TrEMBL record:
Biased composition (Polar residues): 9-25
Name of protein: DUF7344 domain-containing protein
Region (Disordered): 1-25
Tree of life domain: Archaea
Amino acid sequence: MTALEPNETGMQNSAAAQSQPPEQTTVLSLQKINSLLERIFGGLSPSASETNDPNELDPRVHLSVDTAIDLLSNRRRREIILQIQALAPSECLTVDALAHLLGAMEEDCNPDEVSEEKLSSITTSLVHRHLSTLDGHDVVEYDRDAQTVRCGKSVSGLCYLIATISARCGE
């Protein structure tokens, strides 16, 4: 029979158990976690640059997981991202045209049938909330002076996440 010895909590352990080294706990840094996530997301499908197809969604998201989830948590922002992704790299969209597109989607009508009140509300939310947020994370390039929007470096990755989540949720 082995002797029992008290440990730091007052509980008794066998001498044989105490002689074994404690289990090693691996603590991953945030950088290592982001690197692992990048490999996971980057490995889902080839990027647009690897396929030479500019219409191919690049699954790489150049954002933290929390930021990506926060940006995608708002329905209007998801619609902005999808509308901007549809543009060719050299194209841009005016804030007014984007407001008409979003209004038509929200009201289920033609863009020219959206009420002035709705357009004003959407334009205000675009200018004061959504576009500056998306621009701050390189999802879009928002030119405040010209009132235009074009694709940023993270838009394709977020579109890929929207498509993946929508497919998994059956939408």
